[in-house]
Amino acid sequence: xxxxxxxxxxxxxxxxxxxxxxxxxxxxxxxxxxxxxxxxxxxxxxxxxxxxxxxxxxxxxxxxxxxxxxxxxxxxxxxxxxxxxxxxxxxxxxxxxxxxxxxxxxxxxxxxxxxxxxxxxxxxxxxxxxxxxxxxxxxxxxxxxxxxxxxxxxxxxxxxxxxxxxxxxxxxxxxxxxxxxxxxxxxxxxxxxxxxxxxxxxxxxxxxxxxxxxxxxxxxxxxxxxxxxxxxxxxxxxxxxxxxxxxxxxxxxxxxxxxxxxxxxxxxxxxxxxxxxxxxxxx
Length: 283
Ligand code: SF4
Prior knowledge:
The protein is of the alpha+beta class.
């Protein structure tokens, strides 16, 4: 009974531990994604003067494929005047990390003037970056002080930001050979005709020249002596060519006694065919 109880308790503890571990891991992964996986909005140094606003946007474009092309800056100032200023603008943007330096017009100048006043404001500013065609948007709420601080401490200009964070095309690990199975066109001949026997225009030039010496007879000759040096591998090649002269036995090849030595051409052919070059002869 005691053993059964102890076993049951161990099982319950292990199951509880497993559930706690899984839940904890989920929280950790979710928390990591929330804090570090969120798209990043960076304030940049604008070159557009008092009405300018420059920013860079970085996000995981594989996880969230979208073309961000709109920005909204809104001041919420419920206890002061004006209570609200909203500025919107469209820009080129991009499908991966991008930076923009925008002239947002007099409204931006007014917003900066209002929040830079001597009185401390209990107001907040929202910057929203959105992809109008994809229905995706990201909002960044911050206090007026933080907004001004970010503007003042912007570390990069738009060009510097692009240089630093622009996504480069991944390196090709396995280059594929580009092949075409269509032959290149023949080079232009400029009207020149091919001087070949098959061209009727040059038939006369080739008449009588049927392959040069190919048809000329080769004169046979007598052989004074023929012999086999050690090393024969009994392959039968010589006997197949001229059996009147060569006889292949069990362990070697021999010259038949009284072999005719008048067919020098075939003896030479047998010597050239011998794979171990042991057939020798004198002319
Ligand atoms: S061709 Fe050469 S190796 Fe072959 S049987 Fe004749 S002598 Fe021997």
